[in-house]
Amino acid sequence: MRKEKEVMIGERAITVRELTARQIDQIMGGIDHSRQIHPAELLMGDHFPVEAVTASTGLTADDLSGDITPSELRELWDAVIEVNGFLSNLLIRLVGVGEKMSESTFAGPSAD
């Protein structure tokens, strides 16, 4: 059964839904080095992309940079992460891999 959670943002009830494997694949396939960081991602400061939030909630990227407070964004983001735990864990692992690759690239050749 697909997980769901309802979150109140102002007067609006938003249903957060667990993403399907297909949706996750589409999101992951659309993220590349040329992608612009969304202002809500900067405010949240974590690993979760705005594309996952919009796909999970039906909100638009514009909704997430409009008349919504940072505390409302945090509540929404946390609900999306909670309902999409598998994606969250995947993204955390990928961030870790990227950091290790970056460290080894900037460390230069070993002195062996």
What descriptors fit this protein?
mainly alpha; 112 residues; globular; 2 strands
Q: What spatial form do the alpha-carbon principal axes imply?
A: globular
- How much of the sequence is in beta strands? 5-15%
What is the gyration radius calculated from CA atoms?
16 Å
User: Tally the helices: what do you get?
Assistant: 5
SSE sequence, one letter per element: EEHHHHH
Summarize the structure.
This protein is mainly alpha-helical and 112 residues long. Helices cover 54% and strands 11% of the residues.
Could you walk me through the main structural features you see in this protein, from its secondary elements to its overall organization?
The relative contact order is 0.16. The protein has one domain. Strand 1 and strand 2 form a beta hairpin. The chain has a two-stranded antiparallel sheet. The chain is mainly alpha-helical. 54% of the residues lie in helices and 11% in strands. It has 5 helices and 2 strands, in the order ββααααα.
Per-chain topology:
Blueprint: E1 4-9, E2 12-17, H1 21-30, H2 39-44, H3 50-57, H4 70-83, H5 85-107
Antiparallel strand pairs: 1-2
